[in-house]
Structure formats: structure tokens, C-alpha cells
């Protein structure tokens, strides 16, 4: 029995039905040009599972979008304002990125969704011809604290980092913005509670997110754009399951985001509920997207639990602060110990910094002198490191050896990445 508002009010079940997002025989645009979908049987927004690891819950798959296929597990570099900071789109593609993320809140404020639509949507606007995911902007809205007010109808906030004007978003408003931006995947409007929070506060966030998820499903009409629901519930597994059940009953979402993690809790606390949620309860035939998580070890462990997609600003934000991922663990290139280091950031890495022979000593110099090139080289390295990590994870899943992959990773210095 569906628990959504329409059914509780005695409305007909058809009120919970959303647009038909299944379309076969669609041509897709990829980085290599227009080509047919990877197989004649593939359908837009279908998720094909290619392999499942026998020793973990990890799986390798392919998610089909209007701008190309997305192999999973996958990390999505974040291009908040329609740019991955400092990098040309071709450089991001050359690093191996199959899909990137844009931020709905920031794009709605500057330059505005109408202007982006005037230019043909986010793909044309930023000259990126591969898939794009836009988040709902909910996390940014709820970070406004005292300048934000919640109601059943929607959320009001002040755009304090822009012109300070008062804005009110309903779920329907949020979907209208997403459709004008034109991403391949958009996310429902949700409330993301921080940690720690009282159970009552988290329960209210689940209630609002569930109501808004239903309204987003009914309001979303763009057939070439997948709408993902978002599972909330904090560190309470029963609330997570309540959130998931409502989404499953009130819409045939092509995929699910998992929100409200990495918001203040330690990683062990996160995995106490994340692992059973993903491995035992989330739909098998749809992609699972852990939102806002990006350190290598958490990606490795989450893939083992059955997560398929990740995004985070961590690789580029920490790069601009002088930090690099490596198989020795996280490196702070500001440290004086790197001044005479003739090695590259990570032996065996094929990113432009490592393959180009740029030494740790040189990058240390760039970072200490606040030269732009230092942050750019580290950004390319960190993005490539996570993309390559997911490529290796996918290969291990297909080979049936991902359990050994995880064990070897956790026993290596690379796991010291916090």
C-alpha cells in the first residue's frame, strides 16, 4: 500500500505515476561523437549489471543516458558552477571522466537557469558532451542556517553569497530549474540533516524529503532526463528504510541517491547503517549513488557494500590546498620534506603531472609560491587517481577478485588518506 499523500487522501493510484522515461533505439552523444546505444536492447536510464563480485556486494554495471553510457562503479568530478575548477572540459575527459556534476543552487543564482537554457542547456553552455548530473541544491540551501526556513510547501532562504535576495523553492520549482538546465540526471529536492541531530529532527527531514520526492516525481516531465530519489534518515537504519520504501511506492525512480552521510559523522559510524542499507535493502536493478563522499578508502569500502556512483569536491578542493592522493597515503606538498624529493606524486600514475615527470620538489615549490600550476597539476592528479581507482575496482569486480582488492587496499599505506 503506497504511503504517499495522494493515497492517504484517497486519490486514485494513477496520481503517483510519473513520466515514462524508458526509450529504446536512442542515439547518444559521447566524447567520441554520436553513436548508437551500446546494445540494441539497451533502454534510456536502464541499469545493466555486468558482473557481481562473489566475495562482496560489489557490482559492475552500465547506466544508459542520453549523452552516453556511464560504467560503474564511477567517480564523478564536481563542476559546481559549470566548470571543474581550472580545467578545460577536454582535459577532464582526457583524465577518464565519463560523467560530471553541476550544482543546481549555484547555477540558479548565477547565471540563472533561463540563461543556461538560452544557450542550449548545461552541455552546450560548458562545452561538455558527456553525461552531467545536477544535484537538487538542497545541501547548499540547508547550509544557510538562520537564513533558511522550512515548511511542508517548500524552503525559503536568502542567497547570502550572491545578492542576498529572498528565494522560495517548492519541489515543483526545483524540477522546473532542473529541466531548464537539461542535465542527464537530476536529483529530487530533499532536506539533508547534519550530524549530530536528534532523532525527531532526522524524522522530520525524512518526512519532508518523502513528501517532496513524491511531488518532484509528479512534477518532472522531461523524458531525456532521469530523476533520482534521495534516501535520507541519518544514522537510523529504520528511518532510512522508511524513506526508501516511500520512494519505491510513489515513483519508478531510475536510480537513488543516498544523502545525509559525510555530514559530520566518522566513517565507521556511517558504515554501520550504509552497509546494510545498500547491500540488503536498496533495489538491485537501479544505480545507487552515495552523495558527497570522495576519499579513496571510503570509495573502496562503499563499492564493496554495493554503491555504484560517487561525487565530491575533495580531489580538487584539497588539490588547491596542496594535497595529493597517493599509494603512500595522502601527501601534503606544503611540507618541507618534499623540497628535495625528485619522485613524482605517485609511481605508476598516468596523470599529466606524473606522466609528465613533474617532481614532488617542483610541485612543493609551486604550492609554496602560490603558483596556479601547482593546484592545476594536483587537481588533475587527484581526479585521475579516483577515476583510475574506480577503473581498477571495476576490473576486479569483473574478475571476481574484489574481496582481495579491498583487503590489499586496507593493508596498504594508501588507506591512510584522512
Give an overview in words.
Strand 13, helix 9 and strand 14 form a beta-alpha-beta unit. The protein is built from 16 helices and 18 strands. The strands form 5 sheets. An 8-stranded parallel β-sheet has the order 6-16-15-14-13-12-8-7. A 3-stranded antiparallel β-sheet has the order 3-4-5. It has 418 residues and is α/β, with parallel strands linked by helices. The N terminus is likely disordered. The radius of gyration is 21 Å and the shape is globular. The longest helix is centred in the C-terminal third of the chain and has 28 residues.
Short overview:
By secondary structure, the protein is α/β, with parallel strands linked by helices. 38% of the residues lie in helices and 17% in strands.
Low-pLDDT segments: 1-41
**Structural class, from secondary structure content?**
alpha/beta
Q: How far apart are the termini?
A: 44 Å
Please, how many helices? 16
Largest sheet: 8 strands, parallel
Beta content comes to: 15-25%
Numbering strands along the chain, what is their spatial order in the largest sheet? Answer: 6-16-15-14-13-12-8-7
What characteristic shape results from the CA principal axes? globular
State the helicity in percent bands: 25-40%
Kindly report the average pLDDT value.
91
Rg of Cα set: 21 Å
